[in-house]
Task: inverse folding
C-alpha cells in the first residue's frame, strides 16, 4: 500500500512542471515499467518526484519513498534547486529563478546567521526574500562564483537574476496564481516589466495587464484522423492555401536572424583581437569594470536569444 505524502508549496514552487508531451511520455513509461525511481522526501514532504507521485496515485502504481536528512529547510531547498537545474527542459525564466533561490539558500547555510542577514520567511502561499543584500563576504563571493561557474553565467549575472527573482516573489506573494504562469513561460514579461509589477498592490496586480497568456495546441486538432473517414456533421478544416510569390509579404521573417548571423562574426573577431591585445596588468580598474559590464550584458542577451530560438 502506497504511503500518502505531503506537499509543501515552498518546495512545489521550485519544481518546474512537465510539458504535456513530457507528462504523457512519463505516464506511459510508469504504466509500462512501474515506478523504478523512489519519491524523495524530507520530513514527509516531497522534494523530488512530484509528477511521478501524482501519476502513481492516479493509476495506483506502487512506489518507494526515500527520506532525506537535512539540517534545515534551506538545505532541502538548495537540494531541490540543484536537482531541477540539471533538467534540460527548463525555460530561461525558471532557470534564473532557481539559480538565485539556490544561491540564497546556500548563502544562508554558509552564513553565521548574523543580524546582517535576513533568513528565509517562506509561507505556504509563496516564497519570499525580504532583502537581496549583496555586500560581499568571502563566503558569499565563493558561493556565488561557484554557482556562476556551474550554470555558465557570471557573478554579476547572478546579481541581476536576483533583482528579477525578488520581484517575482513579491508578485507571487500578492498574486499567487500568476507566478507559475510566468515561470512556465506562458506569460512573457521583460525584466523591467516584472520589476514594475512587483511594486503594485495585490488589487492593482489583479487589474494589471500581464499580456496575453500563450498556449500550445496540437497540430492535429483541425485535421481529420488519418485512415478514418470523418463523422457525419463534422466540419473538416480545408488544407492551408500556399501563398504565391505575388502574395508574399514585403517583410521577410528570416531577415532579422539572417542579418544577425552576418553581423555577429565581426563582433567575435573584435573580441578575439581585443583578447590578444589587452594587457590586464596595466589596464585601469575603471576600464576593466566598464568592459566587464558590457560583456555581462552581451552574455545575458545571448542567453535570452538562445532560449528564445530553442523554444518549440
Result:
Amino acid at each position: 500500500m502506497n504511503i500518502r505524502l505531503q506537499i509543501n508549496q515552498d518546495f512545489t514552487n521550485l519544481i518546474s512542471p512537465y510539458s504535456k508531451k513530457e507528462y504523457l511520455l512519463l505516464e506511459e513509461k510508469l504504466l509500462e515499467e512501474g515506478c523504478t525511481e523512489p519519491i524523495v522526501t524530507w520530513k514527509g514532504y516531497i522534494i523530488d518526484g512530484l509528477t511521478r507521485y501524482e501519476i502513481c496515485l492516479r493509476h495506483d502504481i506502487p512506489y518507494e519513498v526515500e527520506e532525506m536528512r537535512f539540517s534545515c529547510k534551506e538545505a532541502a531547498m538548495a537540494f531541490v534547486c540543484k536537482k531541477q537545474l540539471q533538467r534540460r527542459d527548463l525555460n530561461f525564466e525558471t532557470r534564473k529563478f532557481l539559480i538565485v533561490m539556490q544561491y540564497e539558500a546556500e548563502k544562508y547555510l554558509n552564513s553565521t546567521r548574523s543580524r546582517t542577514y535576513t533568513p528565509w520567511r517562506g509561507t505556504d502561499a509563496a516564497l519570499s526574500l525580504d532583502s537581496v543584500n549583496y555586500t560581499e563576504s568571502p563566503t558569499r563571493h565563493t558561493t556565488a562564483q561557484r554557482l556562476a561557474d556551474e550554470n555558465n553565467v557570471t557573478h554579476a549575472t547572478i546579481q541581476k537574476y536576483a533583482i528579477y527573482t525578488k520581484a517575482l516573489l513579491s508578485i507571487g506573494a500578492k498574486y499567487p496564481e500568476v507566478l507559475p504562469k510566468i515561470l512556465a513561460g506562458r506569460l512573457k514579461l521583460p525584466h523591467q516589466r516584472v520589476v514594475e509589477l512587483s511594486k503594485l498592490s495585490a488589487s492593482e496586480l489583479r487589474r494589471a495587464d500581464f499580456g496575453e497568456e500563450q498556449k500550445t495546441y496540437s497540430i492535429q486538432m483541425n485535421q481529420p484522423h488519418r485512415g478514418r473517414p470523418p463523422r457525419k456533421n463534422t466540419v473538416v478544416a480545408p488544407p492551408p492555401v500556399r501563398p504565391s510569390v505575388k502574395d508574399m509579404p514585403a517583410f521577410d521573417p528570416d531577415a532579422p536572424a539572417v542579418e544577425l548571423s552576418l553581423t555577429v562574426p565581426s563582433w567575435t573577431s573584435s573580441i578575439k583581437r581585443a583578447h590578444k591585445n589587452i594587457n590586464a596588468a596595466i589596464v585601469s580598474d575603471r576600464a576593466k569594470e566598464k568592459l566587464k559590464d558590457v560583456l555581462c550584458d552581451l552574455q545575458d542577451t545571448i542567453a535570452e536569444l538562445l532560449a528564445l530560438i530553442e523554444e518549440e
Notes: Confidence is low (pLDDT under 50) at residues 112-138, 216-249.
